[in-house]
């Protein structure tokens, strides 16, 4: 029997929240719990509001569409639905949910079924520097039976073709690898690199696997499988052909036991050709060691103890850096941000050679444009990588610079992204967004963040000519930016945007630090004085930044964050002191908006600004972000945009449009001030 003690260290909760349903939530009840979040295509969640009814609530893909994934248990012949059984078989009962908690890598739910207690631990490893472990496209579900009376216990679990992106035409297969049993479900005839309207991959395979000696398996109509388990506690071993109402299932017989014991399942989504990079197929880094899926998932299950041990250390570290940076509210925010950030990023190698010396990383602009390696998305994400895995910055930027150095890209400024639709990194489309100052500054920031965090100058050396070109572009065009888009493209194209000029000034100072050419640093500081001290970009009294030179309203300026992070002093201390006094005066009902005309704010830039201010202003930003995360108004995976004031049918504190974006790495901006590259 494949079993183990759970072995999950639960960190000291910053608060315990009890509700009328008798569920205790720790540290808070988030908008949505990550269940299996490992890539843009393995991204399963459950809304916090559904946890009290976990036995009868579906997992959801990040877009909100339902995924079939169930857990059922028999205790002395009585069957209890533990998770995901929306249509309970006749004669079954629903377990009672008593506890729900999350750390940076685990979402854990405790349920009572008759005389026994079960813990469902959804564990998505985050291994910042172990590329094989991080790139394995699987996640764990461990079901632990707590010690109790001597009961006969069996555990069942199934999935279906909702994990493949469509349910109209699929096939499945069953194989073994050693003691591991593996089901794979795939669509029929889907084009490589294609997605459905919800952003699910239509090519590749959904994978469900487990191992054990007292294990039975079956595939076929889902009602047949579940009724068989209800009546017998086992499955038949028959593997019928796929049907539209079908599922694949496992059943573990734990026997009659009073002891604590557990079974672990692996769920995943495999695409052997995972990314199209300029016409060359990329594949997951893990395939350099485990080329075939059954071997890969068998290794993943065998790696549980090591992966869980590492996750405990990471959970402890996130708790520690959050608390030491700004208390338990901040650590709650960071813990919920980790899986979402790394789950939007994939590490790859060439599919033909499997050469690990040619490693790249790709990030998806989830839920907005769906672009691939959007430079401003990498910029929003970079603080977490700066702290935990700065080599990711090089891996993400290398494909961007390689594309910009090709004949396909001829602009004098940095590109916005390298493909309109993930996973197609086939080049910037002719009608794609252009952000000349924005992205030219961002690539310099990111190159220096990698260099400063690692001490390695290899990236800047390799791409020195391009970096100089973009620095020169900033110097020629940055102080008085022409009408153009900035990172917040919802604002439209504007001329003389203060935040873009700030980016150019800090970008030039950063380029000076990157290369040692202090002439650029001098210009950056001169511009900083003009923008702030000479009031080019501020109100007449120098209390706040304006959205455009000489034009109200005010704007939440976050582009001087790298000035503080890199200790450049491009802007005087007074710029930071004054804005710390100003921002609390323009706070909306639930937070500070992006500018004086909007009713919504973005957690990315609130987090960046929280790192640039101190005292009451910092407390305000962190408290507002925590309150938004825990207010119970939202069900989407942690959205980085929300209403700070009521708007139409929306209440203050409700999320706005976005969900599950990897840009939550921005929440680590304050923690990054304490040091880089701290994970080993």
Polypeptide structure, described:
- Residues 327-670 form the Glutaminase A central domain.
- It comes from Penicillium cinerascens.
- Keywords: Signal.
- Residues 105-320 form the Glutaminase A N-terminal domain.
- Residues 1-22 form the signal peptide.
- With 680 residues, the chain is α+β, with helices and mostly antiparallel strands.
- It has two domains: 17-313, Beta-galactosidase, Chain A, domain 5; 359-672, Glycosyltransferase (Alpha/alpha barrel), CATH 1.50.10.
- It is built from 16 helices and 29 strands.
- The strands form six sheets. Strands 1-2-10-11-12-13-20-17-16-15 form a ten-stranded mixed β-sheet. Strands 9-8-7-14-19-18 form a six-stranded mixed β-sheet. Strands 24-23-22-21-25 form a five-stranded mixed β-sheet.
- Helix 5 runs antiparallel to helix 6 (391-404).
- It is globular.
- It starts with 16 loop residues before the first strand and ends in an 8-residue tail after the last helix.
